[in-house]
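#lab-general

N.A. 3:47 PM
ok so I finally got the sequence cleaned up, no stray characters, all 414 residues accounted for. can someone with queue access submit it? mine expired

B.Y. 3:52 PM
send it over

N.A. 3:53 PM
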Amino acid sequence: MSRARRVVLGVSGGIAAYKAAEVTRGLVKRGAEVQVALTRGARNFVSPLTFAVLSGREVHTEVWGDGSRPAVDHVALADWADILAVAPATAHTLAKLANGLADDFLSTYFLAHHGPVLLAPAMETRMWEHEAVRRNVETLRSRGARIVGPESGPLASGHEGAGRMAEPETIVEQILRLAAGRRDLEGLKLLVTAGPTREPLDPIRFVSNRSSGKMGLALAEAARDRGGRVTLLLGPASLPEPEGLRTRRFATADELHALLLQEFPDCDGLVMAAAVADFIPLARPERMHRDAGPVRVDLEPGRDILASLRPLKRGQTVVAFAAETSDLETRGRRKMEAKGADLIVVNDVGRPGIGFDAEENEVLLLARDGTRETVARAPKREIADRIWDAFRSVRDQSSRFSASTIHLSDSQPK
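B.Y. 4:20 PM
back already:
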């Protein structure tokens, strides 16, 4: 039987601090062990005794303790914990965490904590929208923190708008899900592309494809939950940007290519799930009018973006995608070689209910060493985890080979 999840719950000084009591109660009810840390501001809204009763543990407030007993070792607590959650996370607390300040127990503990981090911001709308707050949130998100909320609704000021802390039930669910995840991608900088491209025909029309971006989004979220530092390059898909990772947007194949030239050299792995246009129309500068009669559209082959990155490859593990309707393995291996990929994910887009714009997929995974794996039909999030399993296997095998090669080279007479 697995042990209970161990949660350090930070509570900072805002009116939503009273909701943290419900978060504590919900975690304990679900079998978690909870260690609460209150900021000085939080103690103006809630009593340490409240959390001590709900958690069954002493509440931490100051780095040096209260003077009547030895201070708690925040490093030892970091070894104990599975996850750090801060709810509510005020603008002041977000600023301290983003900039590495350590003037109380919670901010000092944050610097010792190396597991997953979940932050539930809560503040007035104008504070949430302030450039400094947004910058701090993006800094924390880029370092792998999961941001939950805030939601829109009535605020303490009497106004309505974004800034209301996410509901306690939502926070509890997200904490437990993040704490239970595998961390086998921790420390890796991962790049995922998702969605279609749109190639203009004229100033108001474009050519695109049926990609919804759902598979790429599932891959990005799975990598995030397994500890990866993820950058998602997202095309014009009708999907919300996921929390806890960095997102950059593109529309055309050229824009995606430019982003990849910036991001690829500094990543450890690339999963190219975006559906990039194979043919690019020769766009007209003026709008086409129906009353002008039949119109001829000329298409020219687009750049093979993934193949163009081969000269920049320096140990990155590259995963390609191939949407096919027949002869999946032969076509998949041919594409893998042409693109210089280490692994290719092939799916049969001719079958209904899987692939483009569907909630499920069924894929064939092919590796350069000749191995193959058929992943049966399943939700795209499950497929995403299987792809990352294969990615991890390919990367580990490559690392062992490199280490063996270096060892043999070093053993040769000089």
